[in-house]
Specification:
- This protein is α/β, with parallel strands linked by helices and about 325 residues long.
- It contains eleven helices and nine strands.
- Strands 7-6-5-8-9 form a five-stranded parallel sheet. Strands 2-1-3-4 form a four-stranded parallel sheet, sandwiched between helices.
- Helix 1 packs across helix 11, helix 2 (about 65-75) packs across helix 11 (about 295-320) and helix 5 (about 145-160) crosses helix 6 (about 180-190).
Length: about 325
């Protein structure tokens, strides 16, 4: 059974995947996020919209960036924040995740931010929570990472709003990447002109990226590109790659360097979802160079997560009648 992410009033109740959102929903989130941006060197944005609300971060898979981003986002919106440590949680002791959710719901948690290595966990939770509770997907197996897709699209739009005219190249382990899938879903909602997926044949997807072009040679794939995004390569993937036995060989074949970027557009921008393996998927000179928007992605990620929490609050607030 599909979970409705938008309620009858058109409000965001859950954020599970970008695939089922309309372009207008994505625009609403990005517009709200833009209001949560402040210039570098200025105090970060704060709001009281979530005062009296409780946000539980349930990270059943290791995370530093996304977890910290959601925690700070909730606190900057004045929410009470609970971080569940997977190493000491009841789930680690054998309790089912559903019973964990029911226990926390009984403590009057209003929003669950969930990351899990298994497919379907955020949607399963969303089906079972009370009508006033929202569930936000913070990374699900290799299938979905919606806030990452939103922040990547927001970053591109800030520099090149003509997405339908752009060539976007994504390099790396696309087959196993929830980041790439959510980026694809976001970009295709905005009719991206040319989407290219680049990597070893073993790490390119066989389905789920309709309309994208596949390349096994990086120079051919990024030629004329407006946006170049490198994906983190996990070291265990080298066991799948007969021709690429280690990270040094991967860097030689697919590492993003200044020399390789010469075939992209002169004003091409560089992105990476982090964490980076410098000298493997991307050279430090590129990551820190003038074309890099990697730090801007992090800043936009904070704003996107604040926006998603704030918009989901509107559903929670209406169900409560007023904030507690």
């Amino acid at each position: 059974m599909m979970v409705e992410q938008i309620n009858a009033k058109g409000q965001l109740r859950h954020l599970l995947t970008l695939a089922e959102l309309e372009r207008s929903h994505i625009e609403t989130i990005i517009d709200r996020a833009t209001g949560y941006l402040t210039p570098a060197g200025h105090p970060p944005p704060h709001d009281t919209i979530l005062r009296g609300q409780t946000v539980a971060n349930l990270f059943f898979e290791a995370s530093t960036r996304t977890r910290a981003s959601f925690e700070l986002a909730a606190k900057r919106l004045s929410a009470d924040v609970l971080n569940l440590d997977v190493n000491t949680s009841s789930r680690a002791k054998g309790e089912s995740i559903v019973d964990t959710i029911y226990t926390l719901q009984a403590m009057q948690v209003d929003m669950f931010v969930v990351r899990d290595a298994s497919t379907g966990v955020p949607a399963n939770i969303a089906r079972r929570v009370d009508s006033h509770v929202s569930v936000l997907n913070a990374g699900e197996s290799d299938v979905s990472h919606p806030t990452q897709g939103l922040l990547d699209l927001m970053t591109i739009l800030q520099h090149r709003p003509d997405v339908d005219q752009l060539c976007v190249a994504i390099i790396g382990d696309v087959k196993h990447s929830r980041v790439a899938r959510s980026a694809y879903q976001a970009l295709t909602k905005f009719d991206v002109g040319d989407l290219r997926l680049i990597g070893p044949a073993e790490l390119l997807p066989q389905e789920g990226f309709d309309g994208a072009r596949l390349f096994t040679e990086i120079d051919e794939g990024i030629e004329g590109a407006d946006v170049v995004m490198a994906l983190r390569i996990q070291r265990e993937r080298f066991t799948e790659l007969g021709a690429i036995p280690d990270s040094q060989e991967y860097y030689r074949r697919y590492g993003l360097t200044e020399k390789r970027l010469r075939v992209a557009k002169p004003d091409a921008i560089v992105m990476h979802p982090g964490p980076m393996n410098r000298g493997v998927e991307i050279d430090g000179e590129v990551a820190d160079g003038p074309r890099s928007l990697i730090e801007r992605q992090v800043t936009n990620g904070m704003a996107i997560r604040m926006a998603v929490l704030a918009l989901a609050h509107e559903h929670v607030r209406d169900c409560h009648g007023s904030t507690r």
